[in-house]
Amino acid sequence: MDTGQVSRARTGGTCPGRGEQCVRREEAAVRIQAWWRGSRVRQTLLQAALRAWAIQCWWRAAQAKTLEQRRRLALRLYTCQEWAVVKVQAQVRMWQARRRFLQARQAACTIQSHWRWHAGQARGLLQGCYEVKASRLELDIEILMA
Fold it and tell me: Which of 40, 73, 81, 113, CA to CA, is 20 to 30 A from 21?
């Protein structure tokens, strides 16, 4: 619809009063109405864009929160697994150290047993006593042959 049709539709076809001035006023009114409708459309589009932006921000925050929760869960699981591995390693090392200690203790007991047996055998073969008198030493040794 052009401005002429709008003016005729409003006034019933003819503009009462002065003709040229009436047409200009109607054209100005049409321009004002168009500007108002355009500004309302722009305002509506701006509000829609801002709402969409707010929804996108919320969605991104929700996604980031979910991702952070997943990351923490994965980290907790990894930490538990690592802790279990460390515990098993410590148990194995303790078992190895205890085994080495028991082997060394058994070896020491064997050596002591043999030494005591040898010392006991040697004590039976050599018996003696000694006395110190003034400036001389008297030594009396008996060697027994079994």
Answer: 40
Angstrom distance (rounded) from CA 4 to CA 49: 36
Residue owning tokens 């006593």: 129
| pTM of the complete model | 0.45
Q: Find, among 28, 21, 23, the residue nearest to 7 by Cα.
A: 23
Q: How far apart are CA 5 and CA 13, in angstroms?
A: 8
Q: What whole-number distance in Å separates Cα of residue 138 and Cα of residue 123?
A: 20
Contact at 8 Å (CB) between 130 and 117?
no
**How does pLDDT run across 72-128, given as a tens digit for each residue?**
999 999 999 999 999 999 999 999 999 999 999 999 989 998 888 877 776 655 555
